[in-house]
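Lecture 7 notes: from sequence to structure.

We start with a single chain of 433 residues. Read the sequence below before looking at the structure.
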Amino acid sequence: MSPLDYDRTHIWHPYASLGNPPPVHLAKSASGVEIELADGSKLIDAVSSWWCVAHGHNHPAIVDAVRRQSERLCHVMFGGFTHEPAIQLAEKLAAFAPPGLDRVFFADSGSISVEVAAKMAVQYQNALGHPEKNKLVALKGGYHGDTSLCMALSDPDGMHTLFKGVMTRHFFAEKPAIPTHGVWNPADAESLRTLLAAHAGEVAALICEPVFQAANAMNFYHPGYLREMRRLCDDYGILLIFDEIAAGCCRTGPRWAHARAGITPDIMTVGKALTGGHLTLAATLASAKVADAISNGSPGAFMHGPTYMANPLACAAACASLDLFAQGDYEAKVARIERQFTEGLAPLRGRPNVRDVRVLGAVGVVEVGRLPAAADIERVIRTHGVWLRPFCNFIYAMPPLVSDSRTVTRIVEALGDLASAPPGPPVEGDFHE
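Now the structure, written as tokens:
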């Protein structure tokens, strides 16, 4: 049995069937913006391997940092031990993060960092004598991960509807409608204001993906919504959590997507590009206010602790990644990608199957009425040598932030080709990233 045959019959892939698995490409190696396949062909990774390979694949500085760390300490439990890579990373994160978010909890994935953030909020309210404040408010159109609590905080009508029976019920405000560069109208947050007026006494925190709702909506919204969130949270004694896992680390332009609003959350999650996509690691950053309340309340200890928390190899990779962000002008790199996406994708507006075209930072989205057939998607990938993974009714690209103009041009051409293909047959189910 060939490796690919074994894969098809024994290994589940994300959001895929073992009975009728989708085609997969056998990756052999990767470097820079390209993935090399077993047959020797190469594909530009136009989705940054799910939005994490910010500096390109196998970046020498990150690979070297991991190699050097592997010769000293690959792993040690974080309960009762600490180590230099974790301490250095915490210091670098505190300097990289918005001022005041300098209390760090390391997690082993983005989903876990969101779970940690929600637990922090509930434990914070409990420490202040408000055990009844144990629900969260989230936004329709949002996505926060695939673990149980994260599913419960993602769009209730989105990709996780199958599991509603096992989810805790939280509160959801309507999806923000005003685009990032539109004219702010306070009416856009009326649903949120109404919801909090009715339920603030039950709410520990408000959580959102700031400015960029990713895997459930590919929606770019106005930073004025975040300012209204901050005001409401302050008025009601509720914590504000920003999930910057997809949008952070310069993906939408500034270092943090919420920087456009000029405010700071009480808790923030970061992942994906944190290690430049080389190893899995995430972090939950909290203010001193949050950390002190939890530490001074009962039981005092924060009640969470993953086995691979602060893995030294991952921390070494993240330190090298943050050094690259600090040394390179990534905001300028993203601005150039944004200009190319804006100019290159604009002609797609008005095409028969195209509903909308939108761009923010190094994210280009073509919303279509229905995705092209699988054969057309594969044709475009092979013809242009560009790896795309459209989902739901979104054809999109989120390339490595180091992609040069030529690379972006090829990505734009592939997006245009795919968006111009005829709509495929209806697909049973609603498969998302």
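The first helix runs from residue 3 to 10. Keep this in mind for problem set 3.
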